[in-house]
Design brief:
It is a single chain. By secondary structure, the protein is mainly beta. The protein is built from 5 helices and 20 strands. A hairpin with a 2-residue loop joins strand 16 and strand 17. The longest helix has 11 residues.
Length: 267
């Protein structure tokens, strides 16, 4: 409920903030990068968001005060599906609340399955997202670009792909469990992840895997090899719900290190 309220309140600030800070194009610019065809016939591309100095944008799970990005691919040609590869984000403070995202620039790799392999593809659509400095601005930008299967590899896309979080196997995760029980507003969730300790503070982010559900900021502590985190999952409209552990995604962020874990077992 808090998250819905915050996003609604931020949306009301759009007009006066843009007027005060200048045009949206002065704050952020978007471009389409072409990365050519992969060995299996998919097309590599990326959206590059370049932000004005000091401005930030958000990750797919942006935190309590953030605005989650959403995408439309309407207007694209020869496109069957798009998979987004999110580079590891950073944690930043926003008015005393934790937010998750990117500072200065975001190169967001896209793995595109074309309808007809080997033919040129047009990527066209819109992104709804947020940009933030002293205050947050909801934004919408259109993008368009021609993608050529014969295009050369793009170093910016390659670098962004290399910044993806480690998988559970790559990071040495032995197990990940989720214990859930009813709470006053939804479900209390406790995650227990057996993985090597990273440098610096470890932040755990839980994504329930259902767009109607929202997970609170997790409180984390170490118990030997186990990283234990506790938080709450609620329905955006206050309804009752079931939590499917196989849909849960857990991300552990620390200094220069990120791990992404798909699913958890009962704990």
């Amino acid at each position: 409920m808090l998250r819905v309220f915050l996003i609604s309140a931020l949306s009301l600030l759009l007009a006066p903030v843009v007027a005060a800070q200048g045009r949206l194009s002065d704050l952020v610019q978007i471009s389409v990068l072409d990365g050519g065809q992969t060995a299996d016939g998919q097309q590599l591309a990326a959206l590059r968001l370049t932000l004005k100095d000091g401005w930030k944008t958000y990750w797919r799970a942006p935190g309590d005060a953030g605005i989650p990005p959403s995408f439309s691919w309407d207007g694209s040609r020869n496109l069957r599906s798009v998979d987004i590869v999110w580079p590891a984000p950073v944690i930043f403070d926003q008015g005393g609340m934790r937010s998750v995202g990117y500072i200065g620039q975001l190169v967001l790799p896209l793995i595109i399955t074309p309808a007809r392999t080997g033919e040129k593809l047009r990527l066209k659509g819109e992104i709804d997202f947020g940009v933030c400095k002293d205050i947050c601005v909801p934004a919408r930008l259109s993008f368009s670009g021609e993608l050529d299967p014969a295009a050369k590899r793009n170093p910016a896309i390659a670098a962004a792909l290399a910044q993806r979080p480690f998988s559970a196997r790559e990071a040495g995760v032995r197990s990940a469990t989720c214990a859930v029980r009813p709470s006053a507003d939804g479900m209390r969730i406790e995650t227990r992840i057996d993985l090597p300790k990273a440098r610096g503070k470890e932040v755990v982010i839980v994504e329930p895997g259902n767009p109607n559900l929202w997970a609170s900021e997790m409180s984390s502590r170490r118990q030997g090899r186990a990283l234990v985190s506790v938080g709450e999952v609620i329905h955006g409209e206050g309804r009752s719900f079931a939590l499917n552990r196989s849909d849960i995604r857990i991300t552990v962020l620390s200094r220069g290190h990120a791990v992404e874990i798909d699913g958890c077992t009962p704990g």
